[in-house]
Amino acid sequence: MKTIRLTMAQALVRFLDNQYIEYDGREIKFVNGVFGIFGHGVVLGLGEALAAKNHGLRFYQAKTEQGAGHAAIGYTKQHNRLRIMAVTASIGPGALNMVTAAGTATANRLPALFLPGDAYACRQPDPVLQQIETPHDYTCTAGDAFRAVSRYWDRINRPEQLMTAMINAFRVLTDPADTGAVTVSLPQDVQGEAWDYPEEFLAKRVHHIERRIPAKGQIERAAGMIKAAKKPMVICGGGVRYSGAAEGLAAFCERHHIPIGETQGGKGSILWDHPYNLSGIGATGSLAANKIAKEADLIIAVGTRLGDFTTCSKWIFQNPEARVLGINTGSFDAYKMNGEPIIADAKLTLEALCNALPGYTSSWAGRIEEVKNEWNAEVDRLYTMEDPAGLAQVRVLGELNERLLPHDAIVVTSSGSIPSDMQRVWRTRVRDTYHVEYGFSCMGYEVAAALGVKIAEPEREIVTLMGDGAYTMLHTELLTAVQEGQKIIVVVLDNAGFHCIDNLQHSQGIIHFGNEWKTRDQKTGRLEGVPVAVDYAKNAESWGALGLRAGTVEELRSAVKAALAAKGPALIDVKVTPKSMTYGYESWWRVGTAQVSTNPDVAKAAEAMSSEAAKTRKF
Fold first, then answer.
1. What is the pLDDT of residue 435?
2. Nearest to residue 487, comparing CAs of 544, 402, 419, 418?
3. 387-496+533-575, superfamily in CATH?
4. pTM exceeding the 0.70 threshold for the entire prediction
5. What is the pLDDT of residue 502?
């Protein structure tokens, strides 16, 4: 066996550069670069290997480690999991800053490779700078924090361990069902240690991603459940997008007269004006989808993890006869809510079901068109809402969606009231232009992910919509976008606080407390003084981006026009009125309301919460 002497880090880079996937007959280079920040734990090992010019991996200098991870996640999500970026940082704080991003990847079933530096395997520098010492377990370091959020975790304590570690890492990264964050911790001394690696390990490797074919018995069981149903409903999850099953789902629903409710991950797979698409479902869903969900006697859950926002904490399916049919490559998700599991590829399963249901038509009749027309009228109203106090958040979304942005612009968002509004009212006209992270609802994803999306889609306009709360949490990858010459448009909807959580707080009888941008009142000692005004456009200008401002519809139109014409990154600081977002449409969400309180409004809310909880499905 021929070998080549390399450091562990050099072998790692050469291995990563030679990984490919084959999917539906297409061969695609799988690893396309590395986002990271070089601290002392990686700069001399992995950093030395990346600095060489004998590989094809582009290095992107991030400004925060979490931002690096979110940029990588945005990149792979936009590529429908068929391409990835690796992420690296130093030991200690650098590593721990990536844990949130790893959780984001795993919660959203997205492949992401994290390569944190680690303490010395030899333990001679002891403790090394930034090392966390655990007296009861000396093998435990900051890298172990990734265990809880990774689908696969490993540590390379000897250079030859790299081989089995990376084969297992890519087993998970290329698995449609079990993918997520993969963490391989790299002790800084081992990164520089040399070993004679077999050329076979370093050669081009093609990972074949196979579609899981549904068995005959699975199709028979699924078809039997559908035939027995009068009012079935489909939940379109992210798996529809990743499987490329959108056209098959549309055809299936058209043929059998079955309505569709979208999750955040599935939204945009079926265009908004499709006659069976009722927009979002659940706690942040539309009136149309939620009305239908309450009546449905069969829930066909396609590629969804059935999170509590989708199911209204298992409350939305109020028909006592309702059953769940789970179509998913992952058995973990297919079994949820006592579902009948069809563990198979969504595209192939829907195609097979079409052939197994000759002549079947649901009993919805004109009900689907009725609720869809009702909801379209409501969205039209929201899109033109006039707020005497200023510019309404929903009006901004309407202007952007209907008039100002190109239809093929990709919109990115993640947490707070904006994705809630968008799941309800955003009208997707081009497939794969709706990019929302909501599996982890991670504030701070937005700007970094938009950068990753722009790298994935360099010819498209990338627009991230975020609240001022999310912007203040993490926006530093705007500087990376300036540095890289990657044009993204950041729209900050500034309502001066965490108003999504303020709404939740107040809805349960609690006074407005700790969620608004206000100074501390010197008499009461509480954050209820003067509102804090922030100029986010000026902040963007300090990074080198174009800063724009809007407080009226006319100013918004002018600002968007200028941002679209700009050559580089731009930020639009849009001042919107508090509480001008959308609210629930026949939905409910179970929250931990205090069961005992001196506040009578809280006690009343707790009683109402308990009453609604009694209506939920129990598993």
1. 98
2. 544
3. Thiamin diphosphate (ThDP)-binding fold, Pyr/PP domains (3.40.50.970)
4. yes
5. 84
